[in-house]
């Protein structure tokens, strides 16, 4: 209704974001606020406000690995056009985010578990340590979480099939998981 209100809010939000540019991993007080900050950034970015995307990129890059759990939470709760930027930040951590993602695979919320597997799918090179947890996710009660874990295993397996094949030798692996893992390994052999 009031364009001048939106303009004021826009510039206030961008001003806050620009000040966050100087935040770094030593700023422990900011880490718990990351999901809210990213939510605000998503809203601003959705409005195509000049400066919002640059402020978001700078903020996420400067936060460091301590912010990983909060970035995962932000990714899960935001579901917006900034999701790819969160993935890029997690990829840039070169595997340091994997332990947090593995812990997230055991979350009570099935959507959160599915999103953790989704993120592991996109950092496949560094996600090798997550393979046991992803294999365990093949018995998830939630069909979506199970499906996304499967997709992540296929993605990782296309590059590192031998890592998946090691788990077929595990005698403690339940038969239904072994069968599913064999199918996944076969899928990794396809060109697609």
What do you see in this structure?
This protein is mainly alpha-helical and 192 residues long. The protein is built from 11 helices and no strands. It has helices at residues 3-20, 34-46, 52-63, 68-78, 83-92, 98-104, 110-122, 131-137, 143-159, 161-168, 175-188. The chain starts with a helix and ends with a helix. The mean pLDDT is 76.
Compile the SSE list and pairings.
Elements: H1 3-20, H2 34-46, H3 52-63, H4 68-78, H5 83-92, H6 98-104, H7 110-122, H8 131-137, H9 143-159, H10 161-168, H11 175-188
Order of helices and strands: HHHHHHHHHHH
Shape: elongated
Counting H and I runs of at least 4 residues, what is the number of helices? 11
Helix content: 55-70%
Poorly predicted segments: none
Q: What can be said about the biggest beta sheet? A: none
Structural class: mainly alpha
- Please provide the count of β strands: 0
Radius of gyration: 19 Å
Distance between the termini: 50 Å
Mean pLDDT, as a whole number? 76
The fraction of residues in strands falls at: under 5%
